[in-house]
Amino acid sequence: MNRRLLIILLSAFAIAAISTYVVWRMVGSRLNVAKPQTSTTIVAAAKDIKIGIILAPADLTSIQIVGSVPQGAILDKKNAIGRGVISNIYSGEAILDNRLAPMGSGGGLAATIKEGMRACAIKVDEVVGVAGFVTPGMRVDVLVSGVPPGQGNTQDTQTKTLLQNIEVLSAGTDIQKDAEGKPQQVQVVNLLVTPEQAQILALASNQMKIQLVLRNPLDTTTVTVPETAMTNLFTGGKSPQHPTVAAPRKAKAAAPPPFTITVQNGATKTEEKFVSPGGQQ
Question: Are 122 and 193 in contact (CB under 8 A)?
Fold first, then answer.
């Protein structure tokens, strides 16, 4: 066979193979797009559900999800009924397993407390509570103000950053009784703290005034903040300088009086004057 003819035939076969592959890929991609995707039924919220509520059948509905199912999605309502909600869920939103408390743990605030942590309630007013802007999920620093032990003067009042980057579990009002037994509304904020921090807060809330300071949730840096004393406000942040009192000068001692010695040598009489010991001649 002619060598030139053989090269032409091989080139034709190669071009035909490449064309066939390209056509197959194009047709296959079109068939995949046209192929209907399967749908999955998952459990969703039938209405807005607040944190702490125990789910009931009336709170749940079913929706169809086309394509991939969200991780942790609940497929059967019986796996959600009776469990407490640990974060707000809105109407039509898929209910995920990590948004619910474990089965049997109940609802309310207790279901939102993480393992190993504690919820510590502190009584505040509207100003201390950052004028009502402290809401669940926010981060705050806890400041305390008071007179340190052993210092009874109000000028010794100090402010200290006690805790930093503390999560707020809940904020609202509570009904308590005053000294006369009459009910009154007070502002209460529950903070998520460790057992050691709970002891510190309990002691501070009984002895000192507590102030909450809002911080950016993305700012988790803990910084060293020195205490601020009342006197620092009038000294530019520096400790007041006490004037130095010079020690009184001692008066120079007077020179001791000299004494005279008379020497009698026969008929000759002489006198010699001497300075007393410690003096100058």
Answer: no
- CA 169 – CA 174 distance, rounded (Å): 15
pLDDT digits (tens, 9 = 90+) for 187-238: 788 899 999 999 998 888 887 888 888 888 888 888 888 888 877 777 665 5
Give the pLDDT confidence of 230-242 residue by residue, as tens digits: 777 776 655 555 4
Q: In angstroms, rounded to a whole number, what is the distance separating the alpha carbons of residues 153 and 163? A: 26
| Same domain for 181 and 148 | yes
Helices (H) and strands (E) in the chain, counts: 2, 10
Closest CA to 173 of 214, 125, 111: 125
The torsion angles phi and psi of 15, rounded to 5 degrees, stand at -65, -40
Residue 219 lies in a domain: yes
Strand partners, 161: 143
pTM: 0.54
Secondary structure letter of residue 151 according to DSSP: -
Number of domains within the chain: 2
> What CATH number is attached to the domain comprising 94?
3.90.1210.10
On whether residue 97 sits in a domain, the answer given is yes
CB 61 within 8 A of CB 91: no
| 181 within 8 A of 126, measured Cβ to Cβ | no
